[in-house]
Amino acid sequence: MMSVIKLFFVVLLVGAATALECYQCSSSEIGDACIQSNVTNFKVTQCKSHEYACYITLIRNSGKNTTGIAERGCALNYNYCEKLIHERDTRLALSCYVCTTSRCNFVDALTMHNSSTKITTSFFLILLPLLVITRKIFISG
């Protein structure tokens, strides 16, 4: 019986760690609606097991343009923006935002701030009690 409970908690933890959902859209599909923060225009996608972040990118001719090419979706990790910024065409203005909680990429692409150091810890705060419970079960079992 105790091994069934242990297995349940392991499955629960693995499921919680891989269930990231992100908003997904592209300007090529829905135009400027992908730039705005109106989530009714976006699809919700479940990220693959190796994708741990959500992103928004906006490419404009200049930083003052109010339109451009936006994209939202799942990213491999939190370094997604750093790679894009280093590989971009320097004649274009690129804004990039990465976050690590489900559906966190809802912000308006024109007002977002480039992210490279902000880490969202709410996911880990949610898992902390589960880890404590699991540890107690494994130690006492």
From TrEMBL:
Source organism: Phlebotomus papatasi (Sandfly)
Cellular compartment(s): Membrane
Membrane-protein topology: Lipid-anchor; GPI-anchor
Gene Ontology CC entries for this record: side of membrane
Alphabetically ordered keywords of this record: Glycoprotein, GPI-anchor, Lipoprotein, Membrane, Signal, Transmembrane, Transmembrane helix
Protein name per Swiss-Prot or TrEMBL: Uncharacterized protein
InterPro entries: Sleep_regulator, Snake_toxin-like_sf
Recorded superkingdom: Eukaryota
Keyword rRNA-binding set for record: no
Source species taxonomy: Eukaryota, Metazoa, Ecdysozoa, Arthropoda, Hexapoda
Main location per the UniProt record: membrane
